Amino acid sequence: MNWKGKHYVIDDVVSSEKQLKIKDIFLSEKVQWKFSRDIAGGNYYPRPGFGHGLFNNGATQSQWFELIMPIIENSLRTVYKLTGEKGDYRLEKSRAFMQIPLRNVSGPEYDNHHIDFIEPHLAVLYYVCDADGDTVLFENVYHPQNNTSAPEPSELIEKARITPKMGRVVIFDGYHWHTATQPKEAEVRCVINSNLVLQDKTLY
Predict the structure, then answer these.
(1) Could you say which of 30, 62, 121, 129 has the lowest number of CB atoms within 10 Å?
(2) How many Å apart are CA 154 and CA 198, to the nearest integer?
(3) What's domain 7-203's architecture?
(4) The model scores a pTM over 0.90
């Protein structure tokens, strides 16, 4: 696929009205958040946060899932426009995450680096609100046969940093190890993360 190894940052992926509606919902008491001791998962530096499942393994998990479908649809249209390729994708999972500034954070700037899924996929990360706490993509790449081990923190090489902005989406090859950094100034950092698995693996 032409998006292999690449990333795209798109502002205003949905209308301003839709952006405000998503923000109003996800920063309200209407969403049932679940606390996690380590929001990113991994082996190095646990950072607490909150998660809310929207869709997983073919099943809707939240009444708010339909609200974020235009993000996914418009993101795929954008990828097609930029690459000239239409792919056959399966939505594997979609989740919302919320982080709040922490008084004490151990370890380096990065949260645990990770990939979301072990099949070739596009990661679609939408920012619910303006915040600090950049998303960091690394040059380091997972490969299902040749390179399955997570790199050590000292081996990570930054590829790109994306600052959260309401209505912004970053679409990237999900095989790139990636992470978040902790917000320090914003009231909250809130994102919606969706994984779109490429059905024909031979195209990757």
Answers:
(1) 30
(2) 31
(3) Sandwich (2.60)
(4) yes
